[in-house]
Design goal:
Elements (H helix, E strand, L loop, with lengths): L3 H4 L1 H13 L2 H4 L5 H7 L4 H28 L2 H18 L6 H17 L2 H10 L6 H33 L2 H26 L22 H8 L2 H17 L5 H9 L3 H29 L1 H21 L7 H21 L14 H12 L2 H15 L2 H29 L1 H16 L1
Helix pairs in contact: 2-9, 2-10, 5-7, 5-8, 5-17, 6-7, 6-8, 6-10, 9-10, 9-14, 9-16, 12-16, 12-17, 12-19, 13-14, 14-15, 14-16, 15-16, 15-19, 18-19
Length: 430
């Protein structure tokens, strides 16, 4: 197993790019909002409903994604998802009417989540040994962030050039073609390059003979494991921040008098912090233990949030605000990189990743539903700067819950962590 991740770096790079590019088609309309609205002849309400339909099918897909991931081969799921997503993208070139757009966005919720996301997590886990899971997911999340920065700059350049030389509609069509072709090509590459992990896991404690078929008895065993619920709480408490960090932008504008451009730059700044947090989390996590890295990240996140709450809203302190925001962003993405890397300490075999993901995703990702409601209620009830600070206080509370949960996790997983640490020392000595 030694050096397993290093041998699989080419495959990991492809999975990183695929994990970023498959979501460009469902979300690119937000970056070219006005052009998309005009060329597809939509109202703002209709535009918003495209996101709602996508969100609804994503929620349903989170529930069933684990079942699908453990029922069919990972390679087939990834390939079909990418090619189907790209094919649906080509349909946009017909500039179909609104009802057809709703169907396309609903279908994307299935192809990018139900048949893809958990299978992707399972694939990343399979590329690394037990003592390399932190690096695998750190590089995965950091790589997705870096890919996003490069991809958005490249596509924006293409759009700007073509809209100036030809027309905005031609430029928009070019963006659609670019994203669709890349998705299809990635699907083909994964079919040729990725190999499903061998079924040599007779030593696993939960299952004796993986057969890529979903087993309800395995799900029942997983639900009875305390680590399952602890991992779900860890995802829930950290993902709440990921769902809410964009409120920092209007807060900087309201409390510190940041200009619209500076406030927007703070939002984009998160994508530059993402690789830093993810890469660092992965590398350090494999050296000191994933759960130790989780504790450090929660501590940094709590410190950053507390600073945002206590820092006086003076324009002269905006540079200090930037430092605290950077701490929040780095810690936030460091935690995101550990969401599935930490499963190795819970002693979950790779083959049942999909089954494990069912309760984790239902509970952990529920923040997508309740955090916008909580944030809106805070801003409506208290208004202005006070509303933002109340929201950040709630997030600080959740962060503290996450920190306490990580401490409990360490106590529950002590035996497995000692085993992983022993293997790490043996490999260093050999």
């Amino acid at each position: 197993m030694e050096g397993k991740l290093r041998k699989n770096i080419p495959t990991l790079i492809i999975l990183i790019i695929a994990g970023e590019m498959i979501y460009t088609l469902p979300y690119f309309r937000n970056y070219y909002y006005d052009v998309f609205l005009t060329d597809f002849h939509l109202t703002n309400t209709q535009m918003g409903s495209l996101g709602s339909v996508f969100g609804i099918t994503c929620l349903i897909s989170y529930i069933f994604g684990g079942y699908v991931a453990d029922r069919w081969k990972t390679k087939h799921l990834l390939t079909i998802s990418l090619i189907a997503t790209g094919a649906l993208g080509f349909l946009l070139l017909l500039y179909p009417p609104y009802p057809v757009l709703l169907l396309i966005y609903g279908a994307w919720g299935i192809t990018s989540i139900m048949t893809f996301w958990v299978a992707l997590i399972k694939a990343v886990r399979s590329l690394a040994a037990e003592n390399e899971q932190g690096k695998a997911f750190g590089f995965f999340e950091g790589g997705r962030g870096a890919s996003k920065v490069i991809e958005s700059a490249l596509v924006l350049g293409i759009f700007a050039f073509l809209s100036k030389q030809m027309s905005e509609k031609v430029a928009l069509s070019s963006v659609i073609i670019f994203y669709s072709v890349i998705c299809v090509l990635l699907g083909i590459i994964i079919m040729l390059l990725y190999k499903d992990p061998s079924e040599n896991h007779s030593h696993d404690r939960i299952i004796e003979k993986p057969d890529n078929k979903f087993k309800w008895d395995v799900l029942w065993k997983i639900l009875k494991m305390p680590t399952t619920w602890l991992a779900a709480i860890l995802i829930l408490t950290s993902y709440a921040m990921i769902n809410s960090f964009y409120y920092i932008t209007p807060y900087a504008h309201a409390a510190f008098g940041a200009s619209t451009i500076i406030a927007a730059a703070l939002g984009y700044f998160s994508q530059y912090c993402r690789p830093v947090g993810s890469f660092t989390s992965g590398i350090i996590g494999d050296r000191i233990g994933i759960s130790n890295m989780v504790l450090i990240a929660y501590g940094l996140l709590a410190a950053g949030l507390a600073a945002l709450i206590l820092l006086p809203g003076k324009p002269s302190l905006i540079l200090l605000l930037l430092v605290f925001i950077a701490i929040v962003y780095v810690a936030m993405y460091a935690l995101q990189a550990t969401h599935f890397a930490i499963l190795v300490e819970g002693d979950y075999p790779v083959e049942i990743t999909g089954t494990v993901a069912i309760p984790l995703m239902i509970i952990g990702y529920s923040g997508e539903i309740f955090m916008p409601i909580i944030a809106g209620a805070c801003l409506d009830h208290w208004g202005g700067i006070t509303g933002y600070k109340v929201l950040f206080t709630i997030l600080l509370g959740l962060t503290i819950v996450g920190f306490i949960t990580a401490l409990i996790w360490r106590k529950v997983t002590k035996e497995k962590r000692l085993e992983i640490d022993l293997h790490r020392k043996e490999r260093k000595a050999s």
